[in-house]
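Hello, quick one for you while I still have it in my head. A protein chain has come my way and I'm curious about its shape. I'm sending you its amino acid sequence along with the backbone structure tokens. I'd be grateful if you could look everything over and explain what you see. Here's the protein in full, and shout if anything looks odd to you:
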Amino acid sequence: MKKHLQNILLIISGAAIFAVSVNSIIIPNALGQGGITGFVLFLNYTMGVNIAVTSFMINVFLLIIGWKFLDKLTIIYTLIATSSISFFLEYIHLPHFIPESPITASIAIGILVGISVGIVVVGNGSTGGTDIIALILNKFTGISFSNALFILDLIIVTLLTFVIGLENGIITIISIYISTQIINFILAGLNPKQAFYIVSNKYEDIGEAILKEINRGCTVLKGYGFYSKEERNVLFVVVSRRQVLQLQRLVQFHDPNAFITVSAVQEVHGEGFTYFLNNKA
């Protein structure tokens, strides 16, 4: 129950931030946004529809579709998010932020929208609309949530550009790009990691040094050299980016002939790395 309350608090907080960005920055600056919000803004600019009511109706329709494809708890959380967004859109109207430079507005929108959507997704929900479609694409195609969201947003912004103009359309795309990067930052981790595979006859010395000097554990994998026809031990270790140079120097010190490969790690869970809220109820 405590976990559910934490998620709901995150979702409502994210929804409030999202609504503020729409009412205080996006609309006053005649800019657009991706997702269903962008589509509803298009309808508002051209037909004067109520943004809160229209977005809620469309999101409920998409939730019905999503019910067949997504986790039911996620659907419930998303319903809370979309309801909260519609409520805040209707009743929260803070002072408008209209800077002299449109780029400033774009950056502010990108930061607020990115933070709001990221918080909602961390709370196991979504802000509805194309978020639902993005979650479905992520589940069945493997496309990352943020990239799927960016593609869908571009389609909607292209439509919006015919109403708000090319310049504002480009500014909107910039804000969406910024929000996408922030979503990635929130979902992938505050400190991106690097994975090392180290092939060396002195793997024990290197492993001990990694443990003592870098304070990281490592795993010994069994390998087999196709050319040499010999069994080899391979060290596997994941470190933060700030530890990369230290680890490279450590390996070179113990074995200048060691074979090393380094790759970026999108996300790490487990002892010493996990920082997200526990998903257990």
Notes: The two ends are 6 Å apart (CA to CA).
